[in-house]
Amino acid sequence: MRDLAHAGAFHGLPPHRGGVLKWIGNKHRVAATIVANLPKDFSLYLEPFVGSGAVLAELAPRVAIASDALAPLIAIHRRVQHDATALVEAYRQRIVESEASGSREGIEGYYRSVRERYNAAPNADDLLFLARTCYGGVIRFSARGEMNTPCGVHRPIRAETLAARVAAWQPRVAGVRFEVMDFEAAIDGAGPGALVYCDPPYSDSEGTLYGAQAFSLERLLAAIERAKARGARVALSIDGTKRSGRKVIELALPERLFESESLVDVGRSMLRRFQLEGQTLEGERVADRLLLTWAT
Ligand SMILES: C[S@@+](CC[C@H](N)C(=O)[O-])C[C@H]1O[C@@H](n2cnc3c(N)ncnc32)[C@H](O)[C@@H]1O
After folding, report:
1. Of 22, 47, 148, 177, which residue is the least packed, with the fewest Cβ within 10 Å?
2. Dihedral sign (CA 126, 127, 128, 130)
3. 141: pLDDT confidence band, cut at 50, 70 and 90?
């Protein structure tokens, strides 16, 4: 019954099981905890780094603008709202074609052909398939802007499962306007009464993730400061890989910008840190910090 007290959110929706998108850095595991830390009385909800929309769907805001710099990602969200049958059918077609290619080599070859097609003409249908089948949901781009993640070894979810997830997602995003936007423009739209939740890329050193959009933590902190001065409340997740986690820890946050902090989830972090020492840690969380511009 967690959202009974969220005046700005829809109430009584059936639970949803799993995201439509598989997305590196997604907050599905901790979305309920994050939402429990958000204020109840917002008039407008803004999520400027929406990604797969884990927190957005958990909150199910009545009035919201969710944005991201990656246009084909926003196209997926819009199609979940308005063109879901075609989106699921396009996914089904790709899964059928992938399975028909038989061997592991065949599946990888099919994956590469979809990736090539996506890179030639970025689009929602191919991105959804790639996100669900690529290695770890890692949407990684080369310096030339081409998605270059290899094929994952897991079995992607069936089209029927996707259809069920889309159906559960729809009422949760019914009040949302999805926009392609840089985070700064999005946050600058937050006035008094607005609630903003930010889950940015971990650091500017990881520009290859998500398509090398111009992200700078300094620019984000300045935008948050302006929003707070206008009377908006802003929550910021800072978490990440071991490498960027170190970088975040070194960060000097502006004094008094954040008035409280929660440690949302430290679950497996120490164990993973120990086990994975010296290996590639891309996608391995070590801590989830939630910074709030209001006192709790
Ligand atoms: C850590 S992910 C968000 C994950 C999301 N919370 C979820 O649950 O899936 C960060 C997102 O920021 C987006 N992004 C990167 N640079 C951006 C920018 N300059 N403006 C807006 N969005 C940006 C990426 O495309 C990516 O989807």
Report:
1. 177
2. positive
3. confident
Residues 185 and 262 in one domain: yes
Which domain CATH number covers 88?
A: 1.10.1020.10
Q: How far is the CA of 141 from the centre of ligand 1 (A)?
A: 14
Please report the pLDDT score of residue 287 as a whole number. 62
Condensed to tens digits (0 to 9), the pLDDT of residues 26-53 reads 888 889 999 999 998 999 999 999 999 9
CB atoms inside a 10 Å sphere around CB 23: 22
Find the 214 Cα to ligand 1 centroid distance in Å. 11
Q: Domain ends where: 132, 163, 194?
A: 163
The share of the chain scoring above pLDDT 70, in percent, equals: 81
Q: pLDDT higher for 204 or 98?
A: 98
Q: What is the CA radius of gyration of the chain?
A: 19
Binding pocket residue ranges, ligand 1, CB within 6 Å? 23, 25-27, 48-49, 51-52, 54-55, 68-70, 182-183, 199-201, 210, 213-215
For the chain, the domain total comes to 2
Do residues 46 and 194 touch, judged by C-beta distance below 8 A? yes
> If you take atom 24 of ligand 1, which residue's CA is the nearest one?
210
Residues sharing a CB contact under 8 Å with residue 210, sequence separation 6 or more, in sequence order: 24, 51, 69, 70, 139, 141, 201
Do residues 69 and 112 both lie within one domain? no
From the CA of 197, how far away is ligand 1's center (Å)?
Answer: 11
By DSSP bridging, strand 176-180 and strand 64-68 are: parallel
- Residue 88 is part of which domain span? 82-163
| Residue from 112, 28, 119 nearest 72 by CA | 119
